[in-house]
Amino acid sequence: MKLKALIVTSVALVLVGVSTYAWMHYVLRPQPTECGYCLRPLHNNLRVTAEIDGKRTEVCCPHCAVTEANQQHKPLKLITVHDYLTGNAMNPESAWFVEGSRVNACDREGMHMNEMKETQDVAFDRCSPGTFTFANKASADAFANQNGGTVMSFQQLMQEVQYK
Q1: What Cα–Cα distance (Å) separates residue 112 from each residue in 18, 40, 108, 120, 122?
Q2: What confidence score (pLDDT) does residue 12 get?
């Protein structure tokens, strides 16, 4: 009788433990609010899930992911991208990208100063120019016509990754 009670108690404790883990992992797990590479705020209509060297990260835009992969000298895989107009997630291989437009969606934190408290020009900004994702070529063309930039396919974008 004691053995049966011990088994039932053990099973109950395991179920409570598994349920607690699942609840904390899936319900309480906060959605990332900043880019895993540049630490700027994530925007739902620009968000990218990228994988560099097997590690998945939420990223502010495809340009930031390409820059990080090149800086790490590691291969890049884009898992999901979001349409700039609707915010809908989609497969990157079917998306169209606009790079080099006049639009910069990433926030900047004030001016930069050197140790003498003199203003300093930014020599490199990994998020500029940003890369915007569109569900179809017509939307990408319309955006580029209005804001400048080059329309690219997924294959053209991935050619910028130096380490494949």
Answers
A1: 48, 15, 10, 5, 7
A2: 81
Q: What is the pLDDT of residues 93-119, one digit of tens each?
A: 999 999 999 887 765 555 555 556 666
Give this prediction's pTM: 0.71
DSSP helix/strand/coil, 29: coil
Looking at 27-115, list the stretches that DSSP marks H as alpha helix, in order from N- to C-terminal side.
62-72
The residue ranges of every structural domain in the chain are 1-30, 32-158
* CA dihedral over 151, 155, 158, 159, signed as positive or negative: negative
Sheet containing strand 55-59, strands side by side: 55-59, 48-52, 76-82, 89-90
How far apart are alpha carbons 131 and 105 in whole angstroms?
9
Give the pairing type, strands 96-99 and 112-113.
Answer: unpaired
In this prediction, residue 75 has a pLDDT band, given cuts at 50, 70 and 90, of very high
pLDDT at residue 156, as a whole number: 96
Give me the amino acid identity at 112.
Answer: H
CA–CA distance from 5 to each of 11, 46, 70, 128, 142 (Å)? 10, 54, 59, 64, 69
What is the four-CA torsion angle of 149, 154, 157, 158, rounded to 10 degrees?
180
